[in-house]
Amino acid sequence: MSDAVRKELQRQFNHELMAAHQYEALAWWCAHRTLPGFARFFRHQAAEEREHAARIGRHLLDRGVQPVMESVPAPRMDFASLLEVARHAQTLEAANSRGIQTAYEAAVTARDYPAQVLLHWFINEQVEEEAWTAEMVNRVEAATCAGALLDLDRHIERLLESDKSAGH
Ligand code: FEO
């Protein structure tokens, strides 16, 4: 494996772990505001991000490279509203898509076909990730009173399921 691809996969491995940590923080923020549906959704999302990291880690291992875990920055938790939380998730996923694309470009330049195949899965996954975050932002924006927000909390997992079901 070329140095450039190894470096990119290590970076993305750690980026997925950072995303898991951030989603866990969003889950606690929601739990504290009595939004158990959103809390469960984000906790499940954190588990998915750890699985994404493991997918890259296993690829590195299979090719004789040790995955190296780095320190994880403190997640953001100072949100004024659920809308800010949803927008933060959207920003996270947009950044993650850029990270995947950068890794893919390194794999193309290096003609690293196994890494390209690995990253095809992630490119596809990011389409779903960006879809559910956009839908979450739209739905939270539309819930303009406390009652509507509680109703949305009861249904959020089912509502966003269709965006996620193709990959999981
Ligand atoms: Fe690992 Fe949210 O993508």
Summarize the helices and strands and which ones pair or pack.
Layout: H1 3-32, H2 36-62, H3 82-109, H4 113-142, H5 146-165
Helix pairs in contact: 1-2, 1-3, 2-5, 3-4, 4-5
Overview of this structure, please?
The chain is mainly α and 168 residues long. It has one domain (3-165): Ferritin (Up-down Bundle). The protein contains 5 helices and no strands. It has helices spanning 3-32, 36-62, 82-109, 113-142, 146-165. Helix 1 (3-32) runs antiparallel to helix 2 (36-62), helix 1 runs antiparallel to helix 3 (82-109) and helix 2 runs parallel beside helix 5. It starts with a helix and ends with a helix. The model has no long low-confidence stretch (mean pLDDT 95). MU-OXO-diiron binds next to helix 1, helix 2 and helix 3.
What portion of residues belong to β-strands? under 5%
Distinct compounds present: MU-OXO-diiron
Q: Encode the helix/strand succession as letters.
A: HHHHH
CATH level-4 homologous superfamily: Ferritin, core subunit, four-helix bundle
> What general outline do the C-alpha atoms trace?
elongated
CATH class type? Mainly Alpha
- CATH topology-level name: Ferritin
Main sheet: strands, sense, barrel: none
Poorly predicted residue ranges: none
Average predicted local confidence, pLDDT: 95
By DSSP, the count of extended strands is 0
Structural class: mainly alpha
Number of domains: 1
Distance between the termini: 29 Å
Rg, nearest Å: 17 Å
Q: CATH architecture, please?
A: Up-down Bundle
Q: How many helical elements?
A: 5
Organism: Limisphaera ngatamarikiensis
Function: Iron-storage protein.
Main location: cytoplasm
Family: Belongs to the ferritin family. Prokaryotic subfamily.
